[in-house]
Amino acid sequence: MPKRYVIIGGDAAGMSAASQIRRMDKEGEILVFEKEGVISYAQCGLPYWVGGVVPEKKKLIARTAEEFLNRYNIDVKLYHEVVKIDPSKKEIKVFRREEKDEIAVPYDVLLIGTGSTAIVPPWEGRNLPGVFTLKTMGDAEKLLDWLSSHTPTKAVVIGGGYIGLETAEALHSRGFKVTVLDLAPQLIPTFDKEIAEIAQDALTRHGVEVHLNEEVVGLEGDEKGVKAVVTKNGKFEADLVIISIGVRPVSELAKEAGIELGPKNAILVNERLETSIPDIYAAGDCATHFNRIKNAPDYIPLGTTANKQGRIAGINMVGGDAKFAGVVGTAIVKVFDRTIARSGLGERDCEALGIPYQVVLIKARPVSHYYPWEDEILTIKLCYHKDNRKLLGGQITGGLGGVDKRIDVLATALFHEMTIDELQALDLAYAPPYNSVWDPLQQASTVAQRG
What we know:
Elements: E1 4-8, H1 12-24, E2 29-34, H2 46-50, H3 65-72, E3 74-78, E4 80-86, E5 91-96, E6 101-106, E7 109-112, E8 116-118, E9 131-132, H4 137-149, E10 154-158, H5 162-173, E11 177-181, H6 193-205, E12 209-211, E13 216-222, E14 225-231, E15 235-237, E16 240-243, E17 247-249, H7 252-256, E18 280-282, E19 289-291, E20 296-298, H8 303-318, E21 331-335, E22 338-344, H9 347-353, E23 357-364, E24 378-385, E25 391-398, H10 403-415, H11 440-450
Helix pairs in contact: 1-8
């Protein structure tokens, strides 16, 4: 008898799992329940759609529900919200929005891929017209629809993380006066201060105001729309507000079903993506992610990880034996004419974990010294263990060229637990337009060796 695979959530993790299941099981029934009206789209591309870099919505959609059904026999149920998981009966309860009724659906194997949701504090005025988040396709559609009939001039972005900075640039490109507010004493708090300051400089050089140490207490406005963001220190005029202070895992269904949770209340999974209840898997932004450097479960929600975890969960749901190798926390963001990237631990991480560490910080050209280069030179900061010299992490900034290559080399080195000295042995590509004979990472390694 064909196995029934049920998947909650139709984005990165869910559809990666569904696709992998179909590759391995041609006869099984695959049901995907998605509470919204779109699946398999690029959430990370939303700021670029808002800013006009991506010209239309369909460019962000990898495949539609119809394509999954017709090409892969994967049955995606849109506007179907799973409201309960009953492990004792091996079934889920589903609210069908269009039919306005609830049905029970049995499963043989279940994947929870409910993702994450934008954090919105209970501020007064948070529901005023002109106040948005930018987490889902629906969020972006609401924002763009509103902009088509309104002419705001002053935009405030609350939150200076990755999405906040990308959104600030997108709104600036549309001609708005943009202000970024953040509660922390620096932007992108996962970075060390001197690296975050480079991102802040890129914003201010392009006319974006940045105000740090600003605790938002509410928003002011009327039925026509938002007029200001109020903080403990003052008031910032705004007729458009984007709340971008982070995300949290959507794990309530799992918790109510008795499934164990982990860091940040994400669903705790093992290396096979199994939860604490048999035949229930979890993957993506709703689940934990094993951190190879910390050697512990962590919560680092990224699209790359969601796709990997979904694929591995799919293999194991069919009966395979795949293991998620873990993450090292690699991320990159464009801030106008600067690129900011990181992998592994920063100084604050090492201090919080009680790891003895040393740091090396250098500036270097990403091409040979005689080759023309008008872009920003690289700033490279590496963190390594004081005793065994094992790499712990690194952060790199520069212009729009050269950063991505080095952060991926560093991520690979971290993944394989290399020491800072072993960077010098890497056989890296060289030609004058692309590198110097000693790559900037290797130059940093040399400085570390000299002490």
